[in-house]
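Subject: mismatched residue count in predicted assembly?

I count 622 residues in my input, but I want to confirm that the predicted structure covers every chain. Input:
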Amino acid sequence: MKDEFARIAAYFAPLAGEEGRGLRDDAAVLRPPPGREMVLSVDQMLEGVHFFKTDDPALIAAKLLRRNLSDLAAMGAQALGYLLTTALPADVDDAWLARFSSGLARDQAQYGIRLMGGDSSSSLHGIALSATIIGHVAPGQALGRQGAAVGDGIWVTGTIGDAALGLAARRGKLPDPTGVLTNRSLLPEPRLGLALAGIVSAAIDVSDGLVQDLGHLCEGACLRGVIRADLVPASAAAAACGLEMLETRLTGGDDYELLLAVPPGNGEALRAACGDLPVTRIGVFQPGAGVHVIDDNEQIITFAKPGWRHF
Amino acid sequence: MKDEFARIAAYFAPLAGEEGRGLRDDAAVLRPPPGREMVLSVDQMLEGVHFFKTDDPALIAAKLLRRNLSDLAAMGAQALGYLLTTALPADVDDAWLARFSSGLARDQAQYGIRLMGGDSSSSLHGIALSATIIGHVAPGQALGRQGAAVGDGIWVTGTIGDAALGLAARRGKLPDPTGVLTNRSLLPEPRLGLALAGIVSAAIDVSDGLVQDLGHLCEGACLRGVIRADLVPASAAAAACGLEMLETRLTGGDDYELLLAVPPGNGEALRAACGDLPVTRIGVFQPGAGVHVIDDNEQIITFAKPGWRHF
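Triage response: the counts match. Full output below for your records.
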């Protein structure tokens, strides 16, 4: 088994961009893209909380990067690179690290990003990982959670609920004959590269569950969000799970779709900006507070728990 | 006990600078200082590895920030702010968080930095923390580990070994009647603000132990570093521990002093740049490889373990 520095040299230094200085210095040095603002976010993943120890390390790596990339997507930003922390218990071997770094390498190529630095530590209990993502945006063009206005439509990209159903399937609570749901839970697709500035009034990524994340847009605007459950787009695999999984779909996390506030009249521009990615109007912002989920008779549907929170 | 969002609002949002957007968005947005390069680093601290559960949370917070600030000091950079991750088990209460955030607030004021964003998670086992520090430097002026040349002096700021002795004292293995050693172990002082560009040829902060960190400067330059043990500056409290603690002092971590390569003739400029902070020449770079610690008869002193590594 390699020691700390040999592991860095073998598994991480090959991933480093020039900002990372071969991972031999105390910090990364980055020349900001001229005339741009920097966008920075950090997300962590812990064994037993965000992933299972038996998950493929390459998929853990990909999800770590993609959750962070999704935060950039929600801000309308472009990605440059990332810093990585790993805290590993003694039973994590070099094969695990080799597979983990291969997952990083694949997504670095896919998203055009590079490793810029990081920190490695031992851990007494379980694997702890974090990535700090570094991106950029045109000045003043960053999207935010606070701009929704009365009458703005509530839109989502893609389909909602697959990841939560996939987690249930991985726990043996649901069939997933095609594997689509499981795959969605393990390997999200951040919605990067959509030119949404000037089209949407607010944006967030659906990481903690549609209802809860819509709640953040409502709080940001001091408005009520009203969505029709039957309009929330479902994949074929999710639809096959039936209506009894509605709460799981609407409150479960890890979709990493974008949830958008869109002023009336901007729907076509939004569709054009999203290209091949489906985007669906599921509701509207009204005066008031909180999230109302209604059925097609306008009756309010209540859920036991709106979404994921950590304590 | 507050839930996740109430904790963010109560303990962390008051620490946020404008880049943090009230900690309500998916990412921080930062306008880079004009004409500067960005310097980024991340360091983590885990319960049982980097601190004890019974440590004062305000001191844990301070050490988390200061370890990161020390990385900026080693690069010759100025600090702007930081992102924070917390992973907390269920038995960490609001009082712990209140005390932790008070430690952050105090050091934010001391070092002129602000919180820009972060991520909070539950943890199944133990507290895990990380901070991503964000700083800046004049273009091309970042210090590094790779510039030492044959004949450059090896210099250190301050005194070496107090923190490792303090850790031994906290474990009951040493007396520490004045508390100086313990304090040094709990509350390091990053050596920020020294104008070292053009004076030193390489720099690193002493975080993993003097011998091991000097080894990084040697590897960076493909040279041998030779230091005289009796020249390595000791505080009065460390000197009182006697010569039998020499290995602990020279190989123990957490000093956060700067270790510098200084071309001949730059010593006076270095002293001037360091002002009231003592700086001491302890050795010289020679052709070869590795670190040699010698006594005042030029005999090599060998140690069982050169410094801290995580696995």
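The two ends of chain B are 37 Å apart (CA to CA). Marking this ticket as 'not a bug'.
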